[in-house]
From TrEMBL:
Keywords: Isomerase. One of its GO terms (cellular component) is cytoplasm. This is Putative henazine biosynthesis protein. It comes from the Bacteria. The active site is at 44. Belongs to the PhzF family. One of its GO terms (molecular function) is isomerase activity.
Amino acid sequence: MLSVVQTKVFDISSDGGNPCPLVLNSDSLTNKQMQSIASYYGVETAFILQPESRNALFRLRYFVPKHEMEMCVHATVGAVSYWCQSHEIKQLNGTVETALGEIAVNAQEKDGRLNVIVEQFPPTFSNENPSPSEVAQALKISEEELDLSVGPIQSVSTSRPKLMIPLRSHEILHNLDPDFGLLWELCDRYQTTGFYPFTLTTQSSKYDVEARQFPKRAGYNEDPATGVAACALGAYLTYYSKLQEPKEGWYEYLIGQGYAMGKPSMIKAASYISKEGSITKTRVGGYATILQTENIDINLII
């Protein structure tokens, strides 16, 4: 039997957040078994293994129903939250092993909840991106509903690339009904892992930005809270709004996501501008809720 801890990450209400099953003691599982378990749950699933480095807390592998991923921030937040809870720790600085290497994590109790921050990488900005007309066609909107005064349509990566798409209003964002076949085709053509349309004209004044995430062939069409995309968006906004007159320091953005799905979520992303005027560090984080632990028979899933 396998022990699986159910979590919700970046949740701000009982129906919000991004679910993530954490499969404990996964070292004996094969790739096929991990993929089958993720398909069984139908969401991003994290597998916790013994670390190869003595310095790391544990090793993580991430699967969506259709494939393995190199990085999943919300699963990392969930796993670190569970690790701290099970070890009765309220403050932590450490690292977690992933396919992208060791990732620094920080946890600090705040207002009775554990806030977990996951370090990412300096951003990379793609020079090959779909045109406004291609994106508008995939999202089934007019080009006039794009807001290119904020910045261009551009794929940005702080760990995995996501296509940043500025929109004029939260109404446009909320009403999106994409042509997913065309959306995935554009993802393939321009080597990005999903669309991240966003707006600075938010419905809620507590957010700097509101966004939605449509991943490429993940086994579901929309994600309620996406740390990888939010971190890339933070770097994008810092690059296009702060680097004209750069000042050294962290620039933070509170991002709302999941509202169109009825799963309200909140993510905090930040980018650091160095003395030389470039973005050298990025991070993203938030809270997780640990729900319950269940036991599953792997033989009933395969």
